[in-house]
Amino acid sequence: MVKTLLKSVREYKTASILSPVFVSFEVILECLLPFVIKNLMGSIKKGVNLWQWEWTSWDSLSIGQYALILILMALASLACGALAGYFCAKASAGFAKNLRKDMYYKVQEFSFENIDKFSTSSLVTRMTTDVTNVQLAYMMIIRTAIRSPMMMIFSAVMAFTMGGNLAWIFVGVIFPLAAILFLIMIKTLPLFKKLFKKYDNLNESIQENVNGIRVVKSYVREEYEKSKFDDAATELQVNFTKAERILAWNNPVMQFFFYGVLSSILFVGSYLILENISVGFGASLNSETISQLIVYGMQILMSLTMFSMIFAMVTMSIESARRICEVLNEQSTLHSPKNALTEVADGSIDFENVDFKYSATAERNVLENINLHINSGETIGIIGGTGSSKTSLVNLISRLYDVTDGSVKVGGRDVREYDLEVLRNQVAVVLQKNVLFSGTIKENLRWGNADATDDELLEACKLAQADEFIQTFPEKYDTYIEQGGTNVSGGQKQRLCIARALLKKPKIIILDDSTSAVDTHTDALIRKAFREYIPTTTKIIIAQRTSSVEDADRIIIMDNGKIDAIGTHEELLGTNAIYTEVYTTQNKGGKAVTSFGEMNGEGGASDAC
Length: 609
Description:
The protein is α/β, with parallel strands linked by helices. The protein has helices spanning 2-6, 13-46, 63-109, 112-117, 120-142, 144-163, 168-211, 213-218, 222-247, 250-275, 287-329, 390-395, 420-426, 441-445, 454-463, 467-470, 490-502, 520-533, 569-575, 577-587, 604-608; strands spanning 349-356, 367-374, 379-384, 405-410, 413-414, 427-430, 439-440, 480-481, 508-512, 538-542, 554-559, 562-567.
């Protein structure tokens, strides 16, 4: 896990090294300061001159010389501390930047199967809260985690030098304190592991509410959504409070040992001085020594306090680090093979004994026993109810997923033999959920072809029947599209997405229910343009309206993951019960419908769909 995270340090290695270097100098200077102060107090006690220019010996410097040395050491310590803080901030912020970038780039490589493993809310939490926790932990590790043990060691050495065996009091405190801190960590780590799942639930509640805000307001469900969010927030608060209550023992435990050590030093030290008992290590006790031992004791215990803070932060970040590494270590389930094919011969498509399920552990297949041949340039309509696996079928063509059994061929070759980029450039898909990004119409269209000329943009928009409404905008093709395309209608959004796909000049174009928001006249014009201007392109149209597929060369009826029937409009109208009922309901009788599967009556095609 550590090795995975450290790969993201990269260009901030120098800053990460310089920070502990300057911390080391800062610690050395701070540990020497009490030693100089002790000599200064000795000089005052002896009545040495206030100032003298000549150097005699270290023990007999004047008060002014000691004061000058103290000032210089304090300034040097301040400078080292400032530089350590600067490099620490630079390294930790840069590390967090690289972590987020690495995670984002990794997600871009994921297949749909990989993305299905992580919810959107979980990925958001990992890139925000989790990275922030790891950043704070890294900042403390390269500065405070270096400073704390060094301060402890140097202070202990100086304490033994000045106080002899009396310094063993400090050493005796370290082991029970470390045991208590370790026990706290063992207790809190499982709680923090649960905690971050609660963060995911909270983010999911917010995301779902914001995405569906129109539905929430339409059905006056604000109070319900507030209650749902409140439940998620309360659950997070309860778990966080439970973990923090355990971590809160850090402070009283540290205070107990801190004052216990000070009391012991004063009591034992006073007794040894009064009884004139030797403390060993060539040290001699006096009032100046006791006062400086207290200073070193405070430094040792403050180091332990800082260590407990590090420990608390690292404890919180361990689970965050694990969640980040899950994303960074996740390997895409789809790869381009070695010596991959770089050219698609034509737009022919073959499904040979195809079975498919989204998860290896799934109980049943989503698609089962699919055998189908589509000629290059053919227009294919696909109709089926919600859950009949229409989208799953076409997702296999552009290799958004791999088949479980059997094979899918494009241009006579298995899709697994192609370079992924080459295949997807030749199989354009206009998805069910039309997505436009913030930017001008031109910028959105050039997602299909970054090098497309203005004439090519115009031609694609005319084919998609989008040019007509674009020309009504004051800025025409330079009109700014808001995030998600919120400032254009659903039909306009669909036509722009179709134009974007056409700019790829693919051998296969798949319209996955992507004309549902346009009127039937515009839908007919789009299909007419496809027949006349891209006759060699294979066209697959998934639709809910029979009128959208009536003139297709063949229509495929999907039912429960299987192909129920294949034929032309005329053939199916007389032979297939599902297609006949849908057509009749939509065109000649029954209640008016807006989508396939919302038909009047019971049983028959409605149930089958």
